[in-house]
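Repro:
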Amino acid sequence: MSKTLTGRPLWGEAMGLSAITLLGLLCSPGQAPADVTPWKSPSMKIPIDYQPSRKNDIKELHLWVSPDQGQTWQQHSVGYPEKDAFFNFSAPADGIYWFNMVVVDKSGKREPADIYKAAPALKVLFDTKKPVVTIASAQRNGDDVTVVWKVVERNPDWNKFKLEYSTNGSTWNTVPTRPEADGSAQFKVAGGDAVTVRVALTDVAGHMGEASSPVAGTTVASKAMPESGVIGASGMTDLPIPPIAGGSLPPMTGPAMPPVVAPPMTERAKDTPLPTETKGSDTPTAPIFPPAPGTPGAPVIDTPPVATATGPAPKSDPLTVNTNVLSNLPAPQVINVASFKLAFEVEDKGASGVGKADVYVTRDDGRTWSKWTTVDKPESPLLIDLAKQGSKDVEGIYGIKVVLQSGAGLAHEAPKPGEAPDLRVDVDTTAPVVTVYDLVPDRTQKDTLIVQWQAVDRNLANDPITLEWSEGPKGPWFPIAPTDGASTGVAKRLANTGSYPWKVPASFPHSKVYLKVTARDVAGNVTEVVPTKPVLVDLNKPAAVKLNIVGSGSR
């Protein structure tokens, strides 16, 4: 499919210039403006089209780009009709970009002469990230199932939101519900079969994000995975994505703002005991310890709360998962890498030493386990790469157990369904999503402006926000809330309240400034957002004075 930009006539006709034709654009339906084309890749080729008979009259073709919807324009590249068939463009960041082309003839005449007065030939929304979907909780009470979910996505297509459930893992039933970024639904499922729920959203560019979770409840007993379902070091089973603990942001203050997608809040794990295997005569055991500080890939020990389920499985059925372990899980350590080093110590080491280590992984907090890898003659620390075996979604919570085998071949059993992991790791490689809004006057305080923002992340750090201002978009930056209370210094870390009252000094010399809002999560991901346009700093209230009649109102 090809798309002609703005329908402008070809060079030599009424408008006197060329048209650009963009091939292969996906005109996806969604919530983008009607004149904006969604594009899921960061790069595109923009073919050049003009009247072949006028080729000899053209000297150069200039591609101009505006990253701020016409506020500023920059010349991106130059093409030549005798050798170039298209322009190459790579978006430096997601967002809406406007495009136009200037044709320069051999006499030096440019058309259009002023790029700021010409209508854009093409508007493209670059969106390269899939929606982040998490299931905060999935609970069952009898036939009633309640699901709570959260979605982080800047360009959602809510017509493509789905809530589904399955009782067999293959047939999915759609649940009618209102599509929301921060939503919940309740529905009925008859019978005692285990239930899995799935939430999915496709954005306007065509990226789909989804999350699934088994439903915890007092009437459901899940069956353990048989030994034949565990694959050795050469492969892995498909591991279900676990639910992520929920939470909410503190209430917003200040003027009204768009609704906030509330991320889970976090708490710091303190003195979490590390369980070990049962001792044996010649069977080595491996209590799991996190990597030492400074070790590459060492986790950060800021952790979210853990969702729990109730209802022990009947003891009479040896294949039933014991869901009681969910209440005694170690808190997950949050990291922003999928590959890390795992330290361990060996207890009850016999004369034959340690022959190998089997690393087992669970993604549903012990309900099912998969052998991830086997290491011969292991030494601490072990290198663990959670992305190596092709997992579809690396992010999320993993439980880990290490089972050591002696040189004589003796080892404890592999973890059984319902057995708690020794270590839990939350892989979080997604930086916070931050939106910055215009300054507004604080009507309750003199000489004060309200800085407004929205920061969303499932593992936001404590006091994750810093606010700064500058005369230009590239700095230097000065703290709006300094740590020392002065006008210069280091920006103070603030709670994610969504607004902050900025007391502007009486001698503040600038009428327009650029803002920078920085947000951090506990995994170490950082997002800095600087809006492309400066904001107005104006606290004056004009008043009419010295009124006087200077003439008759009649003519």
